[in-house]
Amino acid sequence: KRATSRLGWTIVEMGEDENASAEQAAFLEDFYNNIRVSSAADANKHGSMSMLIENILSALENQFAVSEIIWDTSDAPNLSAEVRSVPLWFFENTQGYLRFKRSSFDTEGVEMEKNGWLVADSCGISANRILCGETAWSYRYQAMVASSAPGEGAAAKMSPADVAMFLGIDELRIAKERLENPDKSKSTILPANKVFAFNARKGGRDWQKVVNLYDNEKAFIYFDPPYCTGDSGIYDAWTPEDMQILRNSLYSLKGKWLLSCDGSDICREIFADFAKIEVPFKYSSGTQYVGRPVKSEMLVACDSLADAMHANFNAVQNGKRWRAAA
């Protein structure tokens, strides 16, 4: 960040009217050359454009970077401003966008004034749910306490819900599920030092942005949408309408694709036009319970992968290891 912020910068003139573009570029160059940058968290920090760039780039590691803009019109028609970086703990993201918290005791923020804030994001699709192993949770719990309540240490009572609100995500869970380990023929606890971050927004369309960005003739895209039946337990189920929207997008994809979903009557009907197989399984989480019904995962493939998928599945059914079958 710091090395990048020290690089030179310029205003790029754009527009058909060359005179107007040059005039606007000169105005912006003067504005940015005279901008004042400060920090709400540290009154001793002051800088100029390079400090602003460094603040903006912090969004790459923190998802967001926020600064308050304090406009100065005392020398009109010239315009100046102080841009003051504000720590993210002054904001919450429960509505899908940042809102300012007037007090550290507030759980809901207020709308940020138009033209009064500069908000940078990481320009990516971020996780909205986190699954933590117990050891990983312990470490992150202590780090979160230290950053939000210095001096209180691990004695502070921050629940997973508190941390989720702090991070601006929908949910944080502590994993205690037992998962099957085929190599050892027994179930084991989910690795305690692992953290799984994923996006499972109900009714969300973030996946469409990813597909539109990366789809091309050489691409391979694997879709793993939420179940229509909601059997996953960790995230919200999709509605049949959500799955139909995904299905409709498959017809126009340029690259190869593979999709997995629940082997339900709903999905069998929705993906009736495509090549598919169903793989039976039993949930291994909580194996102390007997009599769990056999369910199935459905794999759906594009035309160019259909033959390979069926041949591989048939070979595995006949006793071959999948690597040998492939």
Describe this protein's structure.
The protein has 326 residues and is of the alpha+beta class. It has 11 helices and 16 strands. The strands form 5 sheets. Strands 2-1-4-3-7 form a 5-stranded mixed beta sheet. A 4-stranded mixed beta sheet has the order 13-14-16-15. Strands 9-8-12 form a 3-stranded mixed beta sheet. The radius of gyration is 26 Å and the shape is elongated. Mean pLDDT is 75; it is low at 149-156, 177-190 and 285-289.
**Assembly of the depicted chains:** single chain
**N- to C-terminal distance:** 44 Å
Residues in helix, %: 25-40%
Radius of gyration: 26 Å
Fold blueprint:
Blueprint: H1 2-5, H2 18-33, E1 36-39, E2 46-47, H3 49-57, H4 59-62, E3 64-72, E4 80-86, E5 91-92, E6 99-100, E7 117-121, E8 129-132, H5 134-148, H6 160-167, E9 171-174, E10 178-181, E11 186-189, E12 195-198, H7 206-214, E13 220-223, H8 240-250, E14 256-262, H9 265-270, E15 275-281, E16 295-301, H10 303-317, H11 322-325
Précis, in short:
By secondary structure, this protein is an alpha+beta fold. The chain is built from eleven helices and 16 strands.
What attributes does this structure have?
single chain; 326 residues; alpha+beta; four-stranded mixed sheet; 11 helices; 16 strands; 31% helix; 23% strand
